[in-house]
């Protein structure tokens, strides 16, 4: 089996910062051609400049089927194929707040990015991957989606939905050469956590047996395996990256 990702084409959403950018840098360093998706145009251009090889940066909205279809078409026009997709786009929404105090609008916004966006991306990419009988789709979930974080109902619920989505479509496409998985990190120090009160961070960290946050290097190393040709027999699965917090 060919184990390299050299010359494979990877889409990375949320590619302007955090887990998305760190993933793009790793894949690019190993010879993959990378398409960065994000809403942040300035951040995208800065991110693209850090990549080692062929790359494009496309400003798009993960929650819009029309915009994602257009962006995917542009990737195909540029590189001719899509082998890998890592959906790292996500927002936290209102935190440190009980459900009765969370506006419906907050839940809808988080749903559109975290869950609807995951659905749209997978739905758009799968027909192209099926034609080539190969693909690796990774949708970033969260330990909050497995266990729930009090005070983060919008985030926890939508990330649970991502795990359910992966379990379902992983089975639907299990005989196609495409693996579809999710990753459930615990607290990883990224820009997304700048919007979370320290009290909420402390609550989440206190539940981690290792007693610390995960690092971007640890996340990216796990992602690299999940989207590699080596990961050919695991699909519909939620990988744990939680410092011991997840036990199932």
What count of helical segments does DSSP give? 8
Tell me which CATH architecture applies here.
Answer: 3-Layer(aba) Sandwich
Rounded to an integer in angstroms, the radius of gyration calculated over CA atoms is 17 Å
The separation of the N and C termini measures: 30 Å
Give the strand tally. Answer: 7
Largest sheet: 7 strands, parallel
CATH superfamily: NAD(P)-binding Rossmann-like Domain
Class in CATH? Alpha Beta
Structural class of the helix and strand makeup?
alpha/beta
- Spatially, the strands of the biggest sheet line up as 3-2-1-4-5-6-7
- Backbone shape: globular
CATH topology value: Rossmann fold
Q: What ranges have pLDDT less than 50 throughout 5 or more consecutive residues?
A: none
Report on this model:
The protein is built from eight helices and seven strands, in the order βαβαβαβαβααβααβ. The protein is globular. The protein has helices spanning 18-29, 41-49, 65-79, 104-132, 143-147, 153-172, 198-206, 216-226, and strands at 9-13, 33-38, 55-59, 84-87, 135-140, 178-185, 238-241. The model has no long low-confidence stretch (mean pLDDT 94). The chain is of the alpha/beta class. It starts with 8 loop residues before the first strand and ends in a 7-residue tail after the last strand. The chain has one domain (9-241): Rossmann fold (3-Layer(aba) Sandwich), CATH 3.40.50.
List keywords for this structure.
Rossmann fold, 7 strands, 8 helices, alpha/beta, 7-stranded parallel sheet, single chain, 44% helix, 248 residues
């Amino acid at each position: 089996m060919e184990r390299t990702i050299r010359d494979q084409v990877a889409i990375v959403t949320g590619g302007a910062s955090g887990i998305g950018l760190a993933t793009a840098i790793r894949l690019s360093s190993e010879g993959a051609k990378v398409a960065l998706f994000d809403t942040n145009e300035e951040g995208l251009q800065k991110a693209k400049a850090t990549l080692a090889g062929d790359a494009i940066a496309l400003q798009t909205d993960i929650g819009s089927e029309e915009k994602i279809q257009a962006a995917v078409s542009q990737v195909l026009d540029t590189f001719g194929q899509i082998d890998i997709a890592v959906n790292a786009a996500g927002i936290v929404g209102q935190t440190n707040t009980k459900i009765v105090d969370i506006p419906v609008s907050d839940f809808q916004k988080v749903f559109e990015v975290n869950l609807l966006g995951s659905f749209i991306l997978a739905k758009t990419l799968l027909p192209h991957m099926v034609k080539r009988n190969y693909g690796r789709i990774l949708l970033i979930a969260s330990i909050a989606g497995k266990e729930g974080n009090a005070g983060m109902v919008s985030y926890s619920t939508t990330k649970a939905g991502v795990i359910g989505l992966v379990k379902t479509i992983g089975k639907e496409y299990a005989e196609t050469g495409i693996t579809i998985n999710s990753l459930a990190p615990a607290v990883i120090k990224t820009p997304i956590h700048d919007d979370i009160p320290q009290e909420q961070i402390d609550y989440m960290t206190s539940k981690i047996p290792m007693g610390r946050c995960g690092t971007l290097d640890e996340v990216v190393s796990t992602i690299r395996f999940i989207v590699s040709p080596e990961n050919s027999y695991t699909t519909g699965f939620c990988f744990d990256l939680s410092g011991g917090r997840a036990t199932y």
